[in-house]
Design brief:
By secondary structure, the chain is α/β, with parallel strands linked by helices. 39% of the residues lie in helices and 15% in strands. It has a single domain (2-329), classed as Rossmann fold (3-Layer(aba) Sandwich). It has helices at 14-18, 21-24, 46-53, 101-107, 133-148, 159-170, 198-208, 211-221, 227-237, 246-256, 286-294, 310-313, 315-338; strands at residues 2-4, 55-61, 68-74, 85-87, 112-115, 152-157, 175-181, 271-277, 298-303. Strands 1-9-8-7-6-4-5-3-2 form a nine-stranded mixed sheet, with helices on both faces. InterPro entries: AB_hydrolase_1, AB_hydrolase_fold, Epox_hydrolase-like. This is AB hydrolase-1 domain-containing protein.
Length: 340
């Protein structure tokens, strides 16, 4: 199945996109958690600011050690009868990546979580655990087991798709369905980066945090983005990098080898929705077709005029696709019942 889906600008953001000065005079009364870096106050995007006020930390006990990590996420306001929707994020990002799509899913009545992957986001890593793939997986499983507790619709964008594939292959009982967005699942880990001397790795990570590189990443990631918006989104994207443990966690992940999940893809039997931006300049949409062929139970939808992060660039399209995917089984069940 191959469909095209039209997109739209996030509600309330259209005027901002045309007139950056609207952000400069916005009165703010947001109250942020004390653990969020104070630089959050410099962010103008009202959607990012709103979601940041809802970030909290939950205790997660790793099975591999006695460490209890206060782990950051956005929790749902109320449970629902459908499977919970759990949103991951991409490489070196945070739950703020979902600032536009999260409220749309929540308004639709879905029980929605946005979870920070271990080593990134806003968790307390002052006592740094290993940030290799096995520990990231264990951390997420323990978070699910302690707090979510029901099979979930697991949503993974970019590298988050590799996290989702790895997790589902190892813990199929925790996953009901999968949604993979512009999936980075064919990269062979961190490649030669794992062989770098530690001093060189730290130098590379320092550059990764830099404003010019983050700004350029925005230019690549989106089909069209203004200078004003890219500047503000750069602040959103690097906010979690301001913790003192961020560099250590990122280097630890790099030298551990990273995700290499291509051999696990065909093991995943869960029903899967693949979403792809037609104009992705980072990962070719030819890989969307390959992924569709390799997953035994998948459907695919492409979003036109959209780059690498559709949930940021076209949130209405993405939320509509996810809502339909979540609700289709309930609709079919209701149809069957109505026939008796």
């Amino acid at each position: 199945m191959f469909t095209l889906v039209a997109g739209s600008v996030p509600a309330g953001l259209g005027a901002t996109a045309k007139c950056g000065s609207l952000w400069q005079f916005r009165a703010t009364a947001d109250v942020f958690p004390s653990f969020i870096p104070k630089e959050v106050e410099r962010i103008k995007d009202p959607f990012a600011r709103k979601l940041a006020t809802r970030i909290e930390r939950l205790p997660v006990q790793l099975s591999s050690s006695n460490s209890c990590i206060m782990s950051s996420c956005v929790k749902p306001l109320s449970p629902s009868k459908t499977s919970p929707v759990v949103l991951l994020h991409g490489f070196d990002s945070s739950c703020l990546e979902w600032r536009y799509t999260y409220p749309l899913l929540e308004e639709a009545g879905l029980e929605t979580w946005a979870v920070d992957i271990l080593g990134w986001g806003f968790s307390d890593l002052e006592r740094l655990p290993s940030c290799d793939v096995a520990t990231k997986r264990d951390h997420f499983y323990q978070l699910w087991k302690s707090h979510i507790k029901r099979p979930m619709i697991l949503v993974g964008p970019s590298l988050g798709a590799a996290v989702a594939i790895d997790f589902t292959a190892n813990h199929p009982e925790a996953v009901d369905k999968l949604v993979l967005i512009d999936a980075s699942v064919y990269t062979e880990g961190t490649g030669n980066l794992m062989k770098l001397p530690r001093a060189v790795a730290y130098a590379g990570v320092y550059i990764l945090k830099s404003i010019p590189l983050r700004f350029y990443a925005n230019v690549l990631a989106f089909k069209s983005i203004s200078f004003t918006r890219s500047s503000d989104w750069t602040k959103v994207g690097r906010l979690h990098c301001l913790y003192p443990w961020w560099e250590d966690a990122t280097v630890n992940f790099m030298i551990s080898g990273g995700y290499n999940v291509s051999s696990q893809i065909q093991q995943v039997k869960k029903k899967t929705l693949i979403i792809w931006g037609e104009d992705d300049q980072i990962i070719s949409n030819k890989l969307a077709v390959r992924l569709h062929c390799e997953l035994p139970n998948a459907i695919i939808s492409q979003i036109p005029d959209c780059g690498h992060l559709p949930h940021v660039e076209k949130p209405h399209s993405v939320s509509k696709l996810i809502m339909e995917f979540v609700q289709e089984d309930s609709y079919k069940e209701a149809q069957c019942i109505s026939q008796y």
